[in-house]
Design goal:
The complex is a heterodimer of chains A (237) and B (404). Chain A has six helices and eleven strands. Chain A has 237 residues and is of the alpha/beta class. Chain B is α+β, with helices and mostly antiparallel strands. Chain B has three domains: 3-43 and 281-403, no CATH class; 72-189 and 235-261, no CATH class; 193-232, no CATH class. In chain B, strands 1, 2, 3, 4, 5, 6, 7, 8, 9 and 10 form a ten-stranded mixed beta sheet that branches. The longest helix of chain B has 38 residues, at 12-49. The chains are: A alpha/beta (237), B alpha+beta (404). Chain A binds chain B through residues 51, 54-55, 58, 60-61, 85-91, 93, 95, 97-99, 101, 103-106, 110, 113-115, 117-119, 123, 146, 174, and chain B through 1, 3, 6-7, 9-11, 313, 315-316, 319-320, 322-326, 329, 398-399, 401-404.
């Protein structure tokens, strides 16, 4: 990652499903940049193409066309996902979901450590960094607990710790506050803001929750596959 | 971080119960192997214990173990006269099924020793001593369950156990009890008094109706005990065991016996092959096939267990893929779980086997090589069993995680 490069740069990303009568354009020529430290909300009704964009940015599904660079690393070129997508996901991407999606047979600390150890970080260093991250997110005292022994808010904090511990260029969050009350939802969004600011990650938050939009820097809107990225920044940025 | 160990730790009771179930199945596989080995060893234990070079049996039979053989008692003397023969001993055997005075069933194979030269001193006596007198003493195998000094009524006499042998089982699986040849035959041909009287009267009647009946003294004599009538030969024996002066003379001696038209001759190795190829062949095949079937069942079960374990954590596998885990990490987790399951089950089977197999009524013999083979089989079926799970893991879609 270099400071003069954007965290994410997408050009001409398109995706369609089906043929003939079932043809659906899920994403049409989407182009945008996400800067380091920027928190962006992605809004749109169901079926508008939010999930499609998320799976493309997560390097799970390839687009039909387009180019994507994450943290300065070419991730998609002319609609083809890079062969080192696994490595890019391990190093440059973090994921937070509506449900915490912690691995049920690992403790909170192990869930966070896992991301680092998958990338070859030594156990000792991974433990140190995982504990520091859990401490930062206020769940250090729950590090030896299994996911089922944590409250919903604690699980979400551990999931955020897991998404940030390897200092990714892009954090993708899919409805992360949907299952939380207003206060906890805002706490999560504040966490994203501070994480983005302190670690330089770009955060793309897919959300229906307008209560916390004052905490994001920019808002993208998507409808029928058309992505509008020029929505004015909200107050508080 | 070892994901397999952590997954197992997460639901340890379930994993252990599964391992116990599979371990019991492997115990049966191990038991089948041991029973198979036991049958083979038991089958040849008796002929091996007799420590002889050649067996002379009834012409065109494969006796005395694979089938019934009867040869005249004087064959022992004829054999002894052949050049190159150091000694000859009569062999008699028959199966006895009676009841002890307390009502307990008593079934064994009675073998007659050629007293006095053979007193059982070369047998595997683990308690007591060899026979010291010509009558009323016996050596019993440990598997019969009787004790040293115990007295057993058989026929008209009572016999005392003076020695306990170990591992001497007839090919049919019955423990062997050694008598002197005379005692063994007395028990074999023992008849009630009334049957003896009727037989003597019938004999006298046959003589009186013939030309010989004109002599009253001959009629009276023919109705006396069989043993007192020179024209009635003693009871036949099962075979004659021949000991050679030196092994080099074997072919010559065998050739000589083959020239006798009333007998067939077999070497000790011939006897082993006759038993293994005939008496226990079907049992051997049956157990071998059953064992193979159990291995197949174990493989299928292992596959199903690993498949189920993989399906249970499919969401976690999809999440691992999303987090960028290499295939080797996911495959390693499934394979390690399969190998751990197999390893624990194997260990359990070995422990159960070591502590339980000696309680089986027939010998169950497990050697280190058999334990090693089972380990190889377990490793192979663990790997085969994990194939289904790995295929399922390959199909896990990270989209499922994003879809919630």
């Amino acid at each position: 990652m270099t400071n003069n490069e954007p965290a994410v740069e997408a050009h001409g990303i398109s995706k369609h499903y089906g043929e003939g009568n079932t043809y659906v354009r899920a994403l049409a020529e989407a182009s945008f940049r996400l800067e380091h430290g920027e928190v962006v909300a992605l809004l749109g009704p169901s079926g508008s193409g939010k999930s499609t964009l998320l799976t493309i940015l997560g390097l799970i599904n390839p687009p039909d066309t387009g180019t994507l660079t994450i943290g300065g690393v070419p991730a998609i070129t002319d609609g083809v996902i890079a062969s080192n997508a696994g490595l890019i996901r391990r190093r440059e991407l973090g994921f937070v979901f509506q449900r915490s999606n912690l691995i049920p047979f690992l403790t909170a600390e192990e869930n966070v450590r896992l991301v680092l150890e998958l990338d070859g970080v030594s156990r000792r260093q991974a433990t140190r960094r995982a504990r520091a991250m859990l401490d930062e997110l206020g769940v250090a005292d729950r590090r030896d607990h299994m996911p089922t022994q944590l409250s919903g808010g604690q699980q979400q904090r551990v999931a955020i710790a897991r998404a940030l511990v390897h200092e990714p260029a892009l954090l993708l969050a899919d409805e992360p506050t949907a299952s939380l009350d207003r206060e906890r939802g805002r706490q999560v969004m504040e966490l994203f803001r501070s994480a983005a600011a302190e670690r330089g990650a770009a955060v793309l938050v897919v959300t229906h929750d307008h209560r916390s939009l004052d905490l994001v820097h920019r808002t993208f809107e998507i409808e029928d596959g058309q992505l509008a990225t020029d929505v004015a920044p909200l107050s508080g940025t | 971080m070892n994901l397999a160990v952590r997954d197992i730790r997460h639901d340890l009771p379930r994993f252990l119960l599964t391992a116990i179930g599979l371990g019991l199945l492997l115990t049966v596989v191990l038991a089948m192997t041991g029973i198979y080995n036991g049958i083979l060893l038991d089958a040849v234990a008796l002929p091996d214990s007799m420590k002889t070079d050649l067996w002379i049996v009834q012409r065109d039979t494969r006796g005395p173990f694979a089938e019934l053989s009867r040869v005249p008692w004087e064959l022992e003397d004829r054999a002894r006269a052949v050049p190159g023969v150091r000694g000859a001993r009569a062999y008699v055997s028959h199966t006895i099924q009676r009841e002890l005075p307390n009502g307990a069933p008593l079934r064994f194979t009675a073998v007659g020793l050629a007293w006095p030269q053979d007193r059982g001193q070369d047998l595997a006596i683990v308690e007591g001593r060899a026979l010291n007198q010509a009558h009323y003493e016996i050596l019993a195998d440990r598997s019969l369950g009787l004790e040293l000094g115990q007295r057993i009524p058989l026929g008209r006499e009572t016999y005392t156990i003076v020695g306990i042998t170990d591992g001497l089982i007839a090919s049919g699986g019955d423990p062997v009890v050694f008598f002197t040849r005379h005692d063994a035959q007395v028990i074999q041909y023992d008849q009630p008094n009334e049957a003896l009287r009727l037989e003597r009267e019938a004999r006298a009647a046959r003589v009186s109706e013939s030309e010989l009946g004109r002599d009253p003294e001959l009629v009276r004599f023919s109705g006396s005990q069989s043993a007192l009538i020179p024209s009635l030969s003693p009871a036949p024996i099962s075979a004659v065991m021949v000991d050679l002066i030196s092994p080099e003379q074997r072919d010559a001696v065998v050739e000589r016996f083959r020239g006798w038209r009333d007998v067939s001759v077999y070497t000790q190795e011939d006897q082993r092959q006759l038993i293994l190829g005939g008496v226990v062949e079907r049992t051997r095949k049956q157990i071998g096939l059953f064992r193979a079937l159990l291995v197949v069942i174990s493989t299928i079960l292992m596959g199903l267990i690993i498949y189920t374990m993989t399906v249970d954590k499919l969401h976690s596998i999809a999440l691992l893929k999303l987090l960028g885990a290499r295939r080797s990490v996911i495959f390693g987790m499934i394979l390690q779980e399969a190998l751990l399951l197999g390893g624990i089950s194997y260990g359990l089977a070995i422990v159960i086997g070591n502590n339980v197999f000696h309680l089986f009524p027939r010998r169950v013999i497990i050697g280190d090589d058999h334990r090693l083979w089972l380990l190889v089989i377990v490793v192979v079926i663990s790997m085969l069993g994990s194939v289904l799970g790995i295929k399922k893991a390959l199909a896990a879609d990270p989209n499922e995680v994003l879809a919630g």
